[in-house]
């Protein structure tokens, strides 16, 4: 048995040297995960670790220092007050994306039992957060990647989101809108999406941790706008009249996405800022 405090300074230093953004927080999370010692006990001066616990912590620290995101190491992450399984092959839910959920909820406030589709669903965080907040809604969550789809179905179970139905489809395939709506084209009150939107040439500039996330969830093609153009064109007729299409967008994409919506006949263009002050969500209404 060794006193935890003996190791803490060295471990913190390792994380700092590796350029980890919030080393004290991350160390605390890693110790809790690897050794089962919660925050309060870690802070107590008399916390002790067995050799096995030390090895377990050091193994995870080594992964973290090599750039594996903390969220993948923990295997779970919180979004909109709910837990989601995460790991290699699925985009980690971001706090910014809660802005998308909030706008979606606002837009559906007066719709008693909305039909919603979430395209490029990934972990399912948007679909599941909406479904849990709107128990009478029916939410279709569409994802193509095998790895992400596995997380999506597990997260539906984890959150007991019985009103979410998962579909493994390529949202860009011409046949997908009719599969999604079962040919009843004007079906949805809300179509919502956080598609890949990073310009291909910017991918290599991304933070080391983000580079461990699936490129398929990030690569928005040369100008970053391909998914907005295609989803808007392919799915506009899947909305009921008066239904909403809502997107998360990249830091400098708000105007371009507003234009795409307008060119496709959408009205009531609505923009929402994230907590960092960026125009993060753009929505429009089918006339
Ligand atoms: N917000 C993510 C990032 O900046 C990108 C997510 C996306 O492409 N949809 O890393």
TrEMBL record:
Gene Ontology BP annotations: methylation
Similarity field: Belongs to the protein N5-glutamine methyltransferase family. PrmC subfamily.
Domain (Release factor glutamine methyltransferase N-terminal): residue spans on this chain: 12-75
Source organism superkingdom: Bacteria
Keywords recorded for this protein, A-Z: Methyltransferase, S-adenosyl-L-methionine, Transferase
A molecular function (GO) term: nucleic acid binding
Catalytic activity, EC: 2.1.1.297
Reactions mediated catalytically: L-glutaminyl-[peptide chain release factor] + S-adenosyl-L-methionine = N(5)-methyl-L-glutaminyl-[peptide chain release factor] + S-adenosyl-L-homocysteine + H(+)
Enzyme class, UniProt record, top EC level: transferase
SUPFAM superfamilies: S-adenosyl-L-methionine-dependent methyltransferases
Keyword S-adenosyl-L-methionine recorded: yes
HAMAP family, per database record: RF_methyltr_PrmC (MF_02126)
Gene3D superfamilies in the cross-refs: DNA helicase RuvA subunit, C-terminal domain, Vaccinia Virus protein VP39
Pfam families documented for this protein: MTS, PrmC_N
Species the sequence originates in: Hydrogenoanaerobacterium saccharovorans
Residues that, per the record, bind S-adenosyl-L-methionine: 143, 194
Protein name: Release factor glutamine methyltransferase
Binding site for substrate: 194-197
Function: Methylates the class 1 translation termination release factors RF1/PrfA and RF2/PrfB on the glutamine residue of the universally conserved GGQ motif.
PANTHER family referenced in this protein's UniProt entry, alphabetically: HEMK METHYLTRANSFERASE, MTRF1L RELEASE FACTOR GLUTAMINE METHYLTRANSFERASE
């Amino acid at each position: 048995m060794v006193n935890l405090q003996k190791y803490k300074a060295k471990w913190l230093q390792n994380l700092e040297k590796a350029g980890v953004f919030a080393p004290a927080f991350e160390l605390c999370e890693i110790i809790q995960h690897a050794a089962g010692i919660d925050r309060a006990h870690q802070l107590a001066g008399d916390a002790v670790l067995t050799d096995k616990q030390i090895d377990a912590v050091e193994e995870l620290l080594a992964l973290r220092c090599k750039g594996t995101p903390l969220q993948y190491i923990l295997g779970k992450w919180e979004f909109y007050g709910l837990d989601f399984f995460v790991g290699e092959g699925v985009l980690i839910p971001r706090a910014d994306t809660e802005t998308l959920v909030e706008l979606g909820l606002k837009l559906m406030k007066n719709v008693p039992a909305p039909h919603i589709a979430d395209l490029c669903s990934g972990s399912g965080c948007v679909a599941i957060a909406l479904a849990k907040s709107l128990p009478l809604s029916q939410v279709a969550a569409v994802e193509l990647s095998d790895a992400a789809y596995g997380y999506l179905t597990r997260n539906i179970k984890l959150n007991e989101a019985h009103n979410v139905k998962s579909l493994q489809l390529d949202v860009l395939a011409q046949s997908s809108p009719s599969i999604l709506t079962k040919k009843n084209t004007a079906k949805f009150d809300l179509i919502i999406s956080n598609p890949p939107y990073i310009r291909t040439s910017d991918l290599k500039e991304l933070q080391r941790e983000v580079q461990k996330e699936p490129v398929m969830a990030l690569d928005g093609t040369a100008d970053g706008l391909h998914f907005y153009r295609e989803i808007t064109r392919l799915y506009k007729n899947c909305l009921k009249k008066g239904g909403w299409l809502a997107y998360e967008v990249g830091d400098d994409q708000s105007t371009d996405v507003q234009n795409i919506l307008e060119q496709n006949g959408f009205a009531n263009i609505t923009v929402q800022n994230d907590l960092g002050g960026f125009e993060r969500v753009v929505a429009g209404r089918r006339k």
